[in-house]
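Team,

Forwarding the record for the chain on the shared tracking sheet. I've put the sequence and predicted structure together so nobody has to dig through attachments.
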Amino acid sequence: MKHIKPLLIGQAPGPNTDARAPLFPNGKTSTGARLASVIGVSPRQYIQLFDRTNLLQTFPGRNARDDAWPVVKGRVAAEAVRPFLRGRTVFFVGQRGRGLWLPCGAAALPHLGALPRVAL
């Protein structure tokens, strides 16, 4: 039986990230780089260990204080991908969309804004 990598699902690409490379460890403060650091692996190992995607494929924009989160689009996207997650280890990365996944038993990683930004 083929090993299936755990899947990291981010909310959406950031304003300065490439949507084709979700949660990629680009730069020291990117979400992917901070995840690699937190779990204690190199960026290369992180890429090899996890499949990665975003729930939304485009940056949703900003509101007065932070990134905007389109709740309805998030729910629709979550429902669309849910059937493809059976049998996979899935981690949702991000603060706003966690509620979309927790009712179905998915693990939610802590919001990385609460974690220190460490140099790699």
